Amino acid sequence: MTTFERRQISTAQRYNRWAHDECSSLAETAASHISTTLDSKKKADIEVLQ
Q: Looking at the whole model, is its pTM more than 0.90?
């Protein structure tokens, strides 16, 4: 029974690590897209009205 429980714990730990890595990857990708979008936008031309 102990061996079976260890396998379950090992599987759960692997899944948690995988999920954490995927979440980090997704966050980095999103931040990269946002940063690229903000950097590439042309600044608005502002004219002073009198």
A: no
